[in-house]
Amino acid sequence: MARRAGRARLGTMFAEPGTPTPLLRTADLTLTYPSGTTALAGLSVDVPRGSVGLVGANGAGKTTLFRLMMGLMFPTSGWIEVTGKAVATDPIGIRSVLGYMPEHDCLPPDQSAADLVSTFGELAGLPTRAARQRASDVLDLVGLDEARFRPIGGFSTGMKQRTKLAQALVADPELLLLDEPTAGLDPLGREEMLELVERLAGFGISVLFATHLLDDVQRVCDHVVMIDGGRLVLTGSIDQLVQRTGVLRVEVGGRSDSVQALASALEAKGIASRAVDPHTLDVDTSVHGEDSFDIVRDTIADLGLRLYSLSSRHRSLDDLFLQEAAHA
Amino acid sequence: MTMYGTAGTAVGPPAVGGAVYDRGYRPYDGPRGGRAAARRALWRLSVRRVLGIRRSWRQKVLPWTLLGIAMLPAIINVGAEFLARQQDERFIPEFITFRDMTDISTVLLLFVAVAAPDIVCPDRHDRVLPLIFSRQLTGADYVVAKAGALFSVVFGFAFLPQVVLFIGQMFVSSDGALDYYLDHDEIIWQAGISVALFALWYSLIALALASFTDRRIVGAIAFLGVVLVSSAVAGVMVGTADNNKTPLDLISVVEPPRALRDIVFLGHIHWENALSGVAGGGIMAAVVYTAIMALCGSVLLWRYREVQL
Q1: What does the domain layout of chain A look like in residue ranges?
Q2: Cα Rg of chain B, angstroms
Q3: Sign (positive or negative) of CA dihedral A297, A301, A303, A306
Q4: Do B162 and B103 form a contact (C-beta atoms < 8 A)?
């Protein structure tokens, strides 16, 4: 319920012209290391607020993009803006609205979770007492209320991931940068972490979720940015992307040659199709777009065929990534 | 059963047998400090770490034991003067002077050797640096906060015995506390400046060495090794010099602040020092001191200029 309310709130923000500043805006962003390796090559992308998946294989440039967003390094050329602020003009100020959860192990084993999280609250500028209170609240939120006074050295991987998430949340950031938050977790731990990330959207916190696990992104994100070799492969709303196949899948019967008859009739109307099996036909909608549904339905009726199903063929993000990366 | 949602409102039927609270997430709308507040927080946290505050008792034993040992000469001195206060002043023994007390060498060196690596090495070893630098802090802020924390603790460590000695002597003085204070008030600034020179010197050198390793024991050994080796080399140089007077004594890590301490307390370098009688010895000590401090500061800034995520 909370998530729906949050999404509705974000939806309202998007609807009002001028209100939503993009979460991330880059223009021709390029970073070449002194060694000559190009980590990002002319990346131009506008990312809306909400839960956004940053997808790419290892070495695709995800962590480099995080470093540039935090102002820990500067691009060779191009421009980057985070939550409406140019990183080049105020790199330190940008960090005041960010929470960062790194992929690697980064927790001192001899400190308790409560101490560590409140420490990072203080480092984010919160007064000592407020930092302790916030630490207690966010540790409750991530499910570490009972373990918070135990040394982190004795924590499981899942508990460590939660502690990292808690320290990123403690200063109530506008944007969370999560670098592979499900890495190394067992299926139950992964499920719990994804549920937590899903809940964050309901709190009005935008999330940039870097991962190479497309299932995780499809599960918790509204939007995806796919990069490969430092270049943008694809970006867009996940709902739209998985539907944007341009293919209708039709199952018909009633005659022994029903698929051939339908294919011929559609071809006469300038619509290409491909038989999948004796009862199934994939129809290309690129010529007539949304009207293709009506044309196919009417053609089936005219031929006197039985229509068993008619639907857009959905693709997975894996299909999309592989296809677009191959094109790139 | 009643459930309470994010805003703390009941989301179920009226309570009958109990209540489940989901406190959810509460945004923070209180005060927030900027970069200076982050720097102060890092300083405070580092001071706490060195002193073992909010850490297990094992982490407290070493710093507080060393501090206790550092206090002993002052306490013994005051105690002896208290017991001998009825005797003629000429026969009251002076165990230690304020000038000597600024340089409680072995204990101070041990403390710095333990504290400096403890303040920086775990951040690198446990890979906490990326988290720290994801806050409103630059590499320079980190260096300033860490060096400031170590300087503060070392200053306190070396100055507290001075305070005990001064206050103790005020109260055992046969002239009365006020007269003792009025007669010796210059000691306060002399001791303050001298201790600050020692604290800054040892803090920056030890931190610069510790910044090259992520292992505390290596950082401690490196610092003590530099002190011992440089002192031994300087000792050989002094031993072979005419009248045991040579500027090469400045090779020893402990000598530059000692020479400056003498100038602060006495206006000249003490005759026991190998620099006394060397033309421009005081200036040489000041130049070496400044150059080494600049070098250590630059090393620290270079070591924390960039952090890998």
Answers
A1: 5-237, 244-327
A2: 26
A3: positive
A4: no
Distance from CA of B261 to the nearest CA of A (A): 37
B52 touches chain A (CB under 8 A): no
Closest CA of chain A from B291, distance in Å = 30
How distant, in Å, are the alpha carbons of A104, B243, B254 from that of B232?
44, 18, 11
Interface test with B, best of A110, A119, A133 (most B CBs within 10 A): A119
Give me the DSSP letters along A70-103.
TTSS--SEEEEEETTEETTT-HHHHHTTEEEE-S
CB contact under 8 A, B132 and A123: yes
Interface size, chain A vs chain B, as Cβ–Cβ contacts under 8 Å: 113
Distance from CA of B106 to the nearest CA of A (A): 29
Residues of A in contact with B134 (CB under 8 A): 70, 72, 95, 98-100
Q: Which residues contact B218 (CB under 8 A, 6 or more apart)?
A: B117
Please list the pLDDT of chain A residue by residue as tens digits (328 residues). 333 333 333 333 333 445 578 889 999 999 998 888 889 999 999 999 999 999 988 888 888 999 999 988 889 999 999 988 999 898 888 999 999 999 988 999 989 999 999 999 999 999 999 999 999 999 999 989 888 999 999 999 999 999 999 999 999 999 999 999 998 888 888 998 999 898 888 888 999 999 988 888 888 999 999 998 888 988 888 887 776 667 888 999 888 888 999 999 999 988 888 888 888 998 888 777 778 888 999 999 999 999 998 887 766 777 777 767 666 6
From chain B, the residues in CB contact with A122 under 8 A are 41, 44-45
Q: Would an 8 Å CB–CB cutoff place B152 in contact with chain A?
A: no
CATH of domain A244-327: 3.30.70.270
Q: Tell which residue, A46, A15, A14, A29, has the closest CA to residue A225.
A: A46
Chosen CATH of A5-237 out of 3.40.50.920, 3.40.50.300, 2.60.40.10, 3.40.30.10: 3.40.50.300
Instruction: Tell me the H-state helices in chain B.
Output: 35-51, 57-83, 98-101, 105-125, 129-133, 139-172, 177-184, 186-210, 216-240, 255-266, 281-303
* Beta carbons of A110 and B55 less than 8 Å apart: yes
Tell me how far apart the alpha carbons of residues A235 and A220 are, in angstroms, rounded to a whole number: 16
ipTM: 0.80
d(CA A181, CA B13): 37
- B1 with A197: CB under 8 angstroms? no
